[in-house]
Write a structure and sequence with these properties.
The complex is a heterodimer of chains A (about 110) and B (about 120).
Chain A lengths: L2 E4 L3 E5 L4 E3 L1 E4 L5 E7 L6 E6 L5 E3 L5 E5 L4 E6 L8 E8 L3 E3 L3 E6 L1
Parallel strand pairs in A: 2-12
Antiparallel strand pairs in A: 1-4, 3-9, 5-6, 5-10, 7-8, 8-9, 10-11, 10-12
Chain B lengths: L4 E3 L2 E4 L5 E6 L6 E7 L6 E7 L2 E5 L6 E5 L5 E5 L8 E8 L10 E2 L3 E5 L1
Parallel strand pairs in B: 2-11
Antiparallel strand pairs in B: 1-3, 3-8, 4-5, 4-9, 5-6, 7-8, 9-10, 9-11
């Protein structure tokens, strides 16, 4: 069965710091990859997605993610975080049905 | 445009009772999925329905059941409630189901508390 691992449970950064959140999945076939964000008190929202083509995908709010097939990874990055990026971030894999990682809580200090 | 709507927003039940949660997908979306999110964890897949047929089922006991109606809305039923069923239940809709590159759009969830 497919599974998704997010390495960091809680990340604390200062504003303007760079961000990288790790995500690895275990599935050998074709997958569709997603990052979702959940701001405090809000529902899950799509940040970005990868289906095929350029392995570096850009999403909303300056986020990007790189798909590395050989490493089964889909890490999320942002060059400079803002206080408003404080949220919970979930990596998800869809190979028939959507499976989520446990999430990474990001706290950005002003 | 209305997003995914779920009702009720909060629900309190006691052990052994039964509960029905409801979900209306975004207009035009034909697939509905249900997830259970326990505090501190990611959403866990329960069911996916597409065109009124079950297309996927997660690792949940038979106490959990669901159905999709002709208008694509859906209900999730949980029988013989246990304390461990306390969670946020999320509904998500997408245009298509199955091995799909369609992103899912989530509702705000139903917070179920079991006493």
């Amino acid at each position: 069965a497919q599974s998704v691992s997010q390495h960091n449970h809680h990340v604390i950064l200062s504003e303007a710091a760079s961000l990288e959140l790790g995500c690895n999945y275990s599935y050998g076939g074709t997958v569709n990859l997603f990052w979702y964000v959940q701001y405090p008190g809000q529902h899950l929202q799509l940040l970005l997605k990868y289906f095929s083509g350029d392995p570096l995908v850009k999403g909303i709010k300056g986020f990007e993610a790189e798909f590395i097939k050989s490493k089964f990874s889909f890490n999320l990055r942002k060059p400079s975080v803002q206080w408003s990026d404080t949220a919970e971030y979930f990596c998800a894999v869809n190979a028939g049905d959507m499976r989520f990682g446990a999430g990474t809580r990001l706290t950005v200090k002003p | 445009d209305a997003g995914v709507t779920q009702s009720p927003t909060h629900l309190i039940k006691t052990r052994g009772q039964q509960v029905t949660l409801r979900c209306s997908p975004i207009s035009g979306h034909k697939s509905v999925s249900w997830y259970q999110q326990v505090l501190g964890q990611g959403p866990q897949f329960i069911f996916q329905y597409y065109e009124k047929e079950e297309r996927g089922r997660g690792n949940f006991p038979d106490r959990f059941s669901a159905r999709q109606f002709p208008n694509y809305s859906s209900e999730l039923n949980v029988n013989a409630l246990l304390l461990g069923d306390s969670a946020l239940y999320l509904c998500a809709s997408s245009l298509l189901g199955g091995h799909s590159n369609q992103p899912q759009h989530f509702g705000d969830g139903t917070r179920l508390s079991i006493l």
